[in-house]
Amino acid sequence: MNYTWNWGIFFEPSPEGAGTYADMLLSGLLWTILTALASWAIAFCLGSIIGVMRTLPSKAARGFGTAYVELFRNVPLLVQMFLWYFVLPELLPAAAGAYIKQLPNAPFYTAVICLGFFTAARVAEQVRAGIEALPRGQRLAGTAMGFTVAQTYRYVLLPNAYRIILPPMTSEFLNNLKNTSVALTIGLLELTARARSMQEFSFQVFEAFTAATLLYVMINVVVIVAATLLERRLAIPGQR
Question: Domain 30-189: which topology?
Answer without folding.
Answer: MetI-like fold (1.10.3720)
